[in-house]
């Protein structure tokens, strides 16, 4: 059978990985796919660099639209990134009848509904395994491997930069700013790390997983997003003393009134496997009603790990290229005409309606009655206390200090209730600094 022809838009870190892995493992891939898969055309603004990667025999151009216009190209791989030109090129490729493979989670999280609808109308596939958790095949697991299950929740460490920073803060007892600079020096963090450290990258990814898990449209604009910039070394130390580790989690959960979609730092029991995922690694836990809890672990970024996922998508398309579009796996796992129905029965919940438990750290005056006043306010609000840890004043502020840290763990409480009681506690004259609140996830 004639090899399927692929055009590659962008040959940076991931693009070069795709080309190299495809060349290295071409015979193995052909045996799996049932036909050859060949990159025959590459578009990159830096033509000389692209030529150095692919060598002779492959057409290199500086105009991505030349690939889209080529009638011999069956699949377009989009590795440009971002929302702008990438969106236009993906939609143009679909309109031209090309299948699309992309690693662009930002594009799909924001414009996925439009892109998937266009692809369905045209009868082509948009594959995006590489968009979430790099080389971990979590999209295929959710779309296919767990299809018998009613998914209950997903919790993932899906940003390697922030996990590296939190691991270093815990191991070395350093504050965020210091570790961020080290992460940038080592290449784990970008010069502008905003998307990573503010939780936006993780939110793009969990938005896609949520849509696949619950059969709802992608709705990034309704996600709650909180990063790690306000975490201090003290909180990581106190969490450890209480038997927890702090991780930036992307969480989506089926609740009574709808679906939770949130990204924020979380205390996770140290005995959980996901709490022990260190450095730049990724991990995702999925809870299904039939299978129970499953864990997916591996490299969430990098040239060849991400290329592994891109090429798996190429193989899927090569296998299904001639199949009736109605018999392919739907882009978001559920049949497209059922997503609107799910939207009505499973709305995304505002953060104020989310129910979880909390870690609170209060810097308070070291005097009698402070603990009683704070716990009294919690009791009046109906917030049940799980544990209290009060530090010695000289341990916090040095010998002769007149202030101390009060750490409280709560049982499950509605977020809106916790917002109100934190405001009351913050107004106490004996509370001397902004209260630190970190959500706690038992993941059991």
UniProtKB/TrEMBL annotation:
Record EC number: 1.1.1.3
UniProt binding sites for L-homoserine: 190
Residues at which NADP(+) binds: 9-16
Domain of life: Bacteria
Pathway the protein contributes to: Amino-acid biosynthesis; L-threonine biosynthesis; L-threonine from L-aspartate: step 3/5; Amino-acid biosynthesis; L-methionine biosynthesis via de novo pathway; L-homoserine from L-aspartate: step 3/3
Binding site residues for NADPH: 105
Residues spanning the signal sequence: none
PANTHER family, A to Z: HOMOSERINE DEHYDROGENASE
Name used for this protein in its record: Homoserine dehydrogenase
